[in-house]
Design a protein that fits this description.
Shape: elongated
Structural class: mainly beta
Helix content: under 10%
Number of domains: 2
Number of strands: 23
Length: about 260
């Protein structure tokens, strides 16, 4: 039975018939039977109740392959929708001022049969079950996930070996002559790489420029890891190539005004 310290990366079956992966909120069991894989996920905090006997329970998922699978590759992914994030306290940012926030973001878990990009995709599983929310007006809004973790000024500590989360550094720069009032903002991560530094995972930094109440905001995505992640190694490429100057509606302030 495979049970490596880190759930991320390559997990060979070797002479074993199953691989177990676990995070704080999620347990995954993958059983090898000939050229088939049986997968069960559990979110009650333990492997108890996950049984695969002669007559497996009905909630497993079966994947059939041309030949026996020798290893499972586990890769973190940023969520497949934007996230709506609230600062711990409503933000009022003076003209020309800058502020940095750190956001703990939930990750998806991508499973491959085989190693890396050459492996065959098995399934993408959410590390956490998130609530749907809408950001923007009916005509120009976007379907997002709402997250409970708040944007913080101080950098938190996250052990990504035990929880399916990464840290995102967000810099907000008020380029206008108006004060920015912000009670929540929309964080789009599809242009962010994922980096591993010691026991933590990080996204590429995001730089948001507020251009005024009657203008949309500009967003820059870095190609590099944040300075807080020493000797970082890129472990997941961004879904979309990092860009600079992307124009998007980003902030919601008092009275639900959007910019």
């Amino acid at each position: 039975m495979s049970s490596d310290t880190s759930p991320w990366g390559l997990h060979p079956f070797s002479n074993q018939k199953e691989i177990r992966l676990q995070w704080e909120q999620l347990r995954i069991r993958i059983v090898k039977r000939g050229s088939d894989l049986l997968l069960v996920e559990n979110r009650d905090g333990s492997h108890s109740g996950i049984q695969l006997g002669t007559y497996p329970e009905s909630d497993f998922r079966r994947y059939a392959f041309q030949s026996p699978v020798e290893s499972i590759h586990v890769q973190p992914r940023t969520p497949d929708r934007p996230l709506v994030v609230q600062p711990i306290h409503p933000l009022r940012l003076a003209p020309r001022a800058k502020v940095e926030f750190y956001v703990s973001i939930p990750l998806d878990i991508q499973l491959f049969a085989g190693e890396g990009k050459s492996g065959e995709s098995i399934e993408r599983i959410r590390g956490e079950i998130l609530s749907d929310t809408w950001f923007g007006d009916l005509a120009g809004g976007v379907l997002c996930y709402a997250i409970k973790s708040r944007a913080r000024r101080e950098c938190p500590t996250i052990d990504s070996e035990t929880t399916a989360r990464a840290l995102c550094k967000v810099e907000i720069h008020n380029r206008s002559i108006e004060q920015l009032h912000c009670t929540k903002f929309c964080l789009r991560l599809d242009h962010c790489h994922l980096w591993r530094s010691e026991a933590s995972l990080w996204t590429s930094p995001v730089h948001i420029r507020f251009n005024g109440n009657d203008q949309l905001s500009s967003i820059d995505y870095s190609e590099k890891a944040p300075s807080e992640a020493p000797q970082a190694t890129k472990i997941t490429e961004a879904t979309e190539a990092p860009l600079s100057g992307l124009i998007r509606r980003t902030f919601a302030g008092l009275g639900n005004s959007l910019t």
